[in-house]
Amino acid sequence: ERYKALFGTTVTTPVFGVEVPVLAHHLAQKDKGSGIAMICTFGDLNDVIWWRELDLPNRTIMGRDGRLISEAPAAIESTEGRAAYAELAGKTVFSAKQAMVELLKHHGALIGEPKPITHPVKFFEKGDKPLEIVSTRQWYIQNGGHDVELRARLIEVGTQIDWHPEFMRVRYENWVNGLNGDWLISRQRFFGVPIPLWYRLDDNALPLWDQRLVPDESSLPIDPSTDVPTGYTDDQRGKPGGFVGEADIMDTWATSSLTPQIACGWEDDPDLFERTFPMDLRPQGPEIIRTWLFSSVVRGHLEHGVVPWSHATINGWILDPDRKKMSKSKGNVVTPNEVLDTHGSDAVRYWAASARPGTDTALDEGQMKVGRRLAIKLLNASKFALSLGGDGSMDPTAVTAPLDRAMLAQLADLIEEATRAFDGFDYARALERTEAFFWTFCDDYLELVKGRAYGAAGDEAARSASTALDLALSALLRLFAPFLPFATEEVWSWWQEGSVHRAPWPSVDELGGAVEPHPLLLQVAASALGEIRKAKTEAKRSLRTEATHVRIEGNAASIEALELAAGDVREAGVVAELVLEVVDGADAGLTVEAQLAPEETTA
User: From the centroid of its chain, how far is CA 14?
Assistant: First the structure.
């Protein structure tokens, strides 16, 4: 408010007589000194911000040797000003500060006596001297930091990608909208991909920066430190009237941003590139959305006019058991080898796949133990199912028993649901649903059907059971293969050719269009068997104890479903007489009364 009337005017600097504008910026400290900051390019990072955001000219006086440059900046036009600068030229920052104070005194421009102050400055790593910012020539790729139209296009390009999870797109948009400068890609290092061009030299062997010698695209890649531009010979390198190669290399993101193009054979295999680019998927971490993902999008857009892939899946972080980020300094890092050796690869993979895309998850060895138990159960259940003697034909028309058809119908629903989940990159959902079905399959269906599979109800009923088991096992192994790759491969080798990981993804068609005979069939059959076994357990009797009479009551829908599996319930529960009765108004549950055969006594 104090200086608002001066905004947009100019003032003249003391000593050098340079006219400079008066501008407003929120980073000026209104309560410090006069409340006015003298901006130079560059004293500190605030100066860099002001220079960029206020679009100021770059007037460099600091050389790479840490001394003030010998030539006065062009902005100093007066003879007096140039003479004053000559007293500073070549001095270090420390000496120039002292000389500047004397110049201000001499010109009567100093109010009061100088006083030492303390203020924060940046120091270089492991050093005891403050950093000085030096202006140098650098290479950039336009990314919307200065171009509003390009920024808007890159925001729109981001909407062409299917993000998994969707909310990660916001991080991309926040980054693009927050850009205030183009993408600096040059680095002053020894190792890396060189920037491929040269510069003409003048008669004093100094580079003519605006006279670049650019190689033809067909000659790439080139190394300007060893290769020679067209029309020149190697003995002209570094000589007056000759050439010099660009010394800078590219930042690592400048090359890794071309990962999709390079992997697809860009420039090397046009046929492969035509068939594979753009790619389908970019999987990556959230912290490099702003670097790898964004830079890849920029390169795809500028070079090809397309997004480099259709989908982007963003993983979460692995945290320690207390949900804190792992770091060496905290001493809470767990290396993969430790848990792999303890729990096995399938168990660790199961735990990792249980974390949804974009969600951080804690290192949970308890969950790994669950995965190990699941893998062992898969091995044991598969061995049992295969022991029931299926003929290997896996002909779904042989599945005639209602219980078997009900199981396959639910398996068909699982295949559709898991396929949708994978199509949406929600692998955790696919695992969750497959695991839930598998435990029901083992605990309920296998127990209900094993008697019939052994032939208790005749050959046709046994073939129905064994074929259904073969079909289910084949599909389940392929559904579990992405999560338990070793256990599934082992079981597959027991009865199938090749690798489960090369087998086709299961489909509903291979189950013969299984139709659910009754939506409650498996549920009520499992419930009835469970209640019968519970009665035996509570009586402290063996599960093979005969139940001489079992009466089951329920509503019409439950009893109707149970009638379809009555034979399997009798066989699995060792029931001599089974009575089913509809009770009007009954809830969804079953009421089971079981009379057990008397225990045999020894005289």
Answer: 56
Q: Measure the CA–CA gap between 470 and 482, rounded to whole angstroms.
A: 20
User: Hey, what amino acid is at 324?
Assistant: K
Give the Cα-Cα-Cα angle 6, 8, 13 (nearest 5 degrees). Answer: 70
Q: How far apart are CA 465 and CA 453, in angstroms?
A: 5
Q: How far is CA 468 from CA 257, 408, 413, 459, 589, in A?
A: 50, 7, 15, 14, 27
Record the tokens describing residue 112, joined without a space. Answer: 């009061």
pLDDT digits (tens, 9 = 90+) for 444-477: 999 999 999 988 889 999 999 999 999 999 999 9
327-349 pLDDT, tens digit per residue, is: 888 888 888 888 899 999 999 99
Whole-prediction pTM: 0.79
Give helix 427-440 / helix 459-480 axis angle, nearest 10°.
Answer: 150
Contacts of 329 (CB under 8 A, 6+ apart): none
CA–CA dist 107, 405 (Å, integer)? 102
Return the H-helix or E-strand segment holding 250. Answer: strand 249-250
State yes or no: cis peptide before 229, omega within 30 of 0: no
The pair of three-digit structure tokens given for residue 454, joined into one six-digit string = 């052994």
Q: How many residues does the chain have?
A: 603
Residue type for position 334:
V
Record the tokens describing residue 567, joined without a space.
Answer: 């034979």
